[in-house]
Design brief:
The protein has one domain. It is 54% helix and 18% strand. The protein has 2 helices and 2 strands; from the N terminus they run ααββ.
Length: 76
């Protein structure tokens, strides 16, 4: 049981490190990502109701490009 926790911690640390590397390569800081997220939420909320509790922000690398993905669930 102890080793399962360690491997989970190691996987989380690896994921966080890879995100930091992607941010660095893209020249982004976490504060910039947060500001972008807030701005997009403000704009979209003018036109639709949002499920703000379930918004997800992901930064990844694909084909030598940094991809910023923001999933914003809309309320019916």
């Amino acid at each position: 049981m102890l080793s399962a926790g360690r491997s989970g911690s190691a996987a989380e640390a690896k994921r966080r490190l890879s995100v930091m590397v992607i941010y660095d390569r893209a020249g982004l800081e976490q504060g910039a990502i947060d500001s972008i997220k807030e701005d997009i939420i403000k704009i979209i909320s003018k036109y639709s109701q949002l499920d703000t509790e379930n918004i997800e922000v992901n930064v990844s690398s694909r084909d030598n490009q940094t991809v910023l993905r923001i999933d914003i669930p809309l309320r019916n």
